[in-house]
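Support request from a user on the community tier.

User writes: "When I paste my C-alpha cells into the form, the page sometimes reloads and wipes my input. The last time it worked, I copied everything first. Here is what I submitted, just in case something in the input itself triggers the reload:"
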C-alpha cells in the first residue's frame, strides 16, 4: 500500500464498499461527507484517481448537489425554512436568533469551533408546522426565537458536558 493510499485509508474503505462504478459516486461522496463533515478538495481529487474518473466529473457532482459542501460543516447543521409559509409565520426572526445565539456574524455559516452550521432552505416539506427548523435530522415546528434559544441552550450544555 502506497503512502497516499494509507493517508486515505477510510476513503479507500468507502470506495471498496460501493465499488468503482461511476453510478456509485453519489453514495461514495455522501459517506465521505458524513465522515469528514464536508468534501475536502484533496479527497475529491483522490476519489477521481481511485475511481478512474476525471476530476471534473467528481467536482461536478460535488458542486451540483446542494447536499454536498466543499467547506467544513458543524456538528449540528441547523436549517431554517424560508419558504412562503415559514417566511410569513416568522422564520427570519428565528433564523436571526439562531445566528446571534451561536455567534455567527456577517455571511459566515459555520462557527469557528465547528459545532454549528446555520443555513436557510427553500422548503422543508412541513408547511403545516411553519416556521420549521431542522437540527441534523430532527424537525422542530412552530418555532419562535425564544423556543429555538431554549433548544440551542440544551445543545450547548450537552457540548459542555453538563
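"...and here is what came back when it finally went through:"
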Amino acid at each position: 500500500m502506497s503512502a497516499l493510499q494509507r493517508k486515505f485509508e477510510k476513503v479507500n474503505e468507502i470506495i471498496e464498499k460501493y465499488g468503482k462504478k461511476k453510478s456509485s459516486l453519489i453514495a461514495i461522496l455522501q459517506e465521505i461527507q458524513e465522515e469528514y463533515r464536508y468534501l475536502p478538495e484533496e479527497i475529491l481529487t483522490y476519489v477521481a484517481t481511485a475511481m478512474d474518473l476525471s476530476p471534473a466529473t467528481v467536482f461536478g457532482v460535488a458542486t451540483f448537489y446542494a447536499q454536498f459542501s466543499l467547506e467544513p460543516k458543524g456538528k449540528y447543521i441547523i436549517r431554517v425554512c424560508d419558504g412562503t409559509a415559514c417566511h410569513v409565520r416568522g422564520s427570519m426572526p428565528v433564523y436571526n436568533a439562531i445566528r446571534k445565539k451561536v455567534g455567527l456574524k456577517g455571511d459566515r455559516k459555520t462557527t469557528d469551533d465547528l459545532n454549528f452550521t446555520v443555513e436557510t432552505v427553500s422548503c422543508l416539506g412541513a408547511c403545516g408546522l411553519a416556521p420549521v427548523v431542522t437540527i441534523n435530522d430532527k424537525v422542530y415546528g412552530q418555532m419562535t426565537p425564544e423556543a429555538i434559544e431554549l433548544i440551542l441552550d440544551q445543545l450547548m450544555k450537552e457540548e459542555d458536558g453538563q
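Agent notes: The reload is a front-end session timeout and is unrelated to the input. DSSP finds eight helices and four strands in the chain. The longest helix spans residues 145-159. Escalated to web team.
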